[in-house]
Design goal:
By secondary structure, the chain is an alpha+beta fold. The chain has 4 helices and 7 strands; from the N terminus they run βααβββαβαββ. The longest helix has 15 residues, at 91-105.
């Protein structure tokens, strides 16, 4: 993955392309107990209501990604991950900012997401971008079984 000393300014966010999928699925499998398959990402790439983004380091390697889809005036951030070697360098922040920008371009009024109750770092990232906890899905996640917190960010005030 990216060199620990690399500059955050060298990071580039762009639309995810099929050639990114091997790196994306490697990160996905390392980050999640029940990872999405490569086919899931391929299916999302074909959906006009979906936006998939890749975060590339200075060597053009995928170090993070996000997947969001839209229905009506709402978006759902379905997946966001950063490679473990590239964490704590603002990549998650840049991805969330890009998702919010895309949501505004598409006229969304809110973005929702689910996050594991025990994933404090992700909750902190989302809270830092104006997301609030608005609900809970008991026993939503497996491996280990855990509640999902539903978080929402309103885009209009």
């Amino acid at each position: 993955m990216a060199d620990p000393g690399s500059s955050p300014s060298a990071l580039r966010i762009r639309p995810l392309v099929k050639a990114d999928l091997p790196e994306v699925t490697t990160i996905e499998e390392a980050c999640f107990a029940t990872p999405w398959s490569e086919q899931t990402f391929r299916n999302l790439l074909r959906r006009p209501n979906a936006c998939l983004l890749s975060a590339l380091d200075e060597n053009e390697r995928v170090v993070g990604y996000a997947a969001v889809w839209f229905a009506g005036r709402a978006g759902e951030l379905g997946d966001l991950a950063v490679a473990s070697a590239a964490r704590r360098r603002g990549i998650g922040t840049r991805l969330v900012e890009a998702v919010l920008s895309e949501a505004r371009l598409r006229g969304a009024r809110q973005i929702i997401l689910d996050v594991r109750e025990g994933n404090r770092s992700a909750q902190s990232l989302y809270r830092g971008h104006g997301f609030d906890i608005v609900g809970r899905r008991p026993r939503y996640y497996a491996g280990p079984t855990e509640d999902a917190l539903i978080m929402r960010r309103l885009l209009i005030r």
